[in-house]
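Troubleshooting: if your tokenizer reports a length mismatch, compare your output against this known-good record of 277 residues.
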Amino acid sequence: MGIKSHKPTSPSRRSTKTPTFEELTRRSSEKSLTKGKSKSGGRNNMGVQTSRHRGGGHKRSYRVIDFLRAKVGVPAKVVTIEYDPNRTARIALLHYADGAKSYILAPDGLEVGTEIHSGAEADIKVGNSLPVINIPEGTMVHNVELHMGRGGQMGRTAGAAAQIVGKDKGMVQIKLPSGEIRVIHGECRATIGQVGNLEHENTSMGKAGRHRWMGYKGFSRGVAKNPCDHPMGGGEGKTSGGRHPVSPWGQPTRGYKTRSNKSTDRFIVRRRVKKNA
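Known-good structure output:
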């Protein structure tokens, strides 16, 4: 995968950086693994807006991804590498020996025609899925389960990878992309390799309109509003707010810790650290 720049025919085109899509082998999706997807506009099942600045965007179809890799012991062949509008990673279409089909996240280096396996006896090869207790220390993995049988929940975005760093009494320590070290059960499964589309972080929208195509709406800064509309609004001339950043309802933002799931604190060996630390 590569990144291409464009001729500066306009200010927005000058800064646009888009992927070349050279790794894709098919433009249309597998119909049996594709279904409709409705838009929420940032609202929950009660119609209450729970996520601001969402709405609009291009129409999408959802590709059903096999995060569980439930076909244990059945070899599969990679048929295509495809684009998925619902995620930053690319997806791979598998044809199993028993005739079944499924989509998986395409790891970096996975090629069409490769045979991959799932199960405890699988080799340590890119694309294979197996319990983390059977994976050597230092190996990079993705699509990692937090709970056995729930399917992969960690390491699913473009370029993401976790690392096996230790094993003890049937438990495995993994280092997440954030720097956090977490303990999971040895029977939880993960896929070997790093998620593909590594250059995604180098792309640039270039213009506000393209951001709207993605389903994100623009918003006004709090310091640009009136004091009746935002706690950081008002003031004579331009001001930076005079207080730590907050939401329109006074909730601290930008670094304010909101984690409340204390029941899983015992599984965190080391908290995530800053990237430049």
